[in-house]
C-alpha cells in the first residue's frame, strides 16, 4: 500500500462550517463544462439559499508529506550558490539575496554568504529565484511531468488516473526523480453510473448508494490515494451522484484523514457540493457566482482550485506567441496547448468576476491547470493560469503564492513550496522580475529539483 506521509499524524486541525449529514487522448476533456441552460438553475436554491445553516465541524487532515527526507539515492552534485538574486521565498520578496543549495536542500539564505568548497556560483543579477511550483489540478503522465519540470512546476496533484503510480512514488522517494515533477494522486474519481468520468477508457468503480461510500474510499486508500475526488456533474446529460452519497463519501474520506475534493462547475452542482463538509472545490465555477454563494464558500473555509485557463478562449493566451514558452514544449504535446479550449465568451465573462469575488472574500485560491485538457498543458499551462489570476485582481506575489506556499500549506506538503533553510532545494531561476510583471515567468533559465539541475532542452 502506497501512502503519502501517512494518516497517523494530523498535519493540522481545521475548524470550519460543515454539513450535518451523519493519458493525453484518454484524458482529454476531463473537465466537463456546463453551458447547457437546461441544466442550470436560478433563484434562491441555485444561489445557496436552500443550504440552510452550516454547523461547526472540527476534523483532522493528514499531511501529504510530514517532513523533509532527502532521497537516499539522490544524485551527488556540487553545491550551488545564487549570488545577489531577487528572492521570492513563497511569501515575500527580498532584493539581492544569496541562496545556497547543498545536499539536496536549501542550505542557507542570506546576504554575503561564504562560498562552500567546490561551489557553482550563479550570478543572480537581473534574475528572480522562486520556489518550485505546485499545480493543484492535473491528469498526470510521465512525459507531461518532465515537461512540467522544465517550466518549474515540480509537484503535480493528480485528480484522476496516473500511469505507474507505485513506481513513480518509489522513484520520488529513492532517487528524487529529478527529471520530472513529483506526483500525488486521487487515483480515481467517485461518480455515478453513466456519470462524468465514465467516458474515459479506464476502469471506474461507480456508486449508486451511500452505503457503498466506505468501501469505495477504502479501495482508493489501498491504491495509495493521497485524497479523494468526488464528481457532482449534471451537465450534458451526465448522471450525477445523489447528495446523500456525496455526504457519505466526504465522511468516509475524513475517516481516513484524507481531503475530500469535489468536481462541480455549474451553479446547481456547486450548490450541491457545498451541502457537504468538503475540503475544496476542484474548479472555480463557470457560472457567475451570486454573492451569498461566495460568502458560503468563504464561511466554510474551503479552498478552490482555479483551472481558469480552461474558461479562457485560446485566442487570449499570450504564452502561445512567446517562443521562450513554445520552444520548450515537446512537439507531440504542442497540439494540445494550441487546441481550442472548451471556453466561450460567456464562460470567460463569468470566470474573472468569480475569481475576483472569491479572492476578495478571502477564499484560498490554488493555481491548477486541469491539464491535459485541450488548451492547456503541463508547466506552460501554469504560466497561463497565474497571468489570469493577476488579470482577476491578484498581485503577482499573491498569484505566485497560489502556486507555491499556499498549496503547500493546504495539502500539508511540509518540505516544499518555500525557499527556506532546511527545505527541499526545489527552485526556479527567472530572467526578469515576475513579482512585478507576471509574464516574466515565461523567462525560465534554470530549474533545480532537490538541488539537481533539470535539463531544459526538449528531448
UniProtKB/TrEMBL annotation:
Gene3D superfamilies, per database record: Amidohydrolase, Urease, subunit C, domain 1
Domain Amidohydrolase-related: 128-451
PROSITE patterns named in the record: PROKAR_LIPOPROTEIN
Keyword annotations of the record: Hydrolase
GO molecular-function terms, A-Z: hydrolase activity, acting on carbon-nitrogen (but not peptide) bonds
Keyword field contains Hydrolase: yes
Pfam families on file: Amidohydro_1
Protein name, as recorded: Amidohydrolase family protein
Organism: Ornithinimicrobium ciconiae
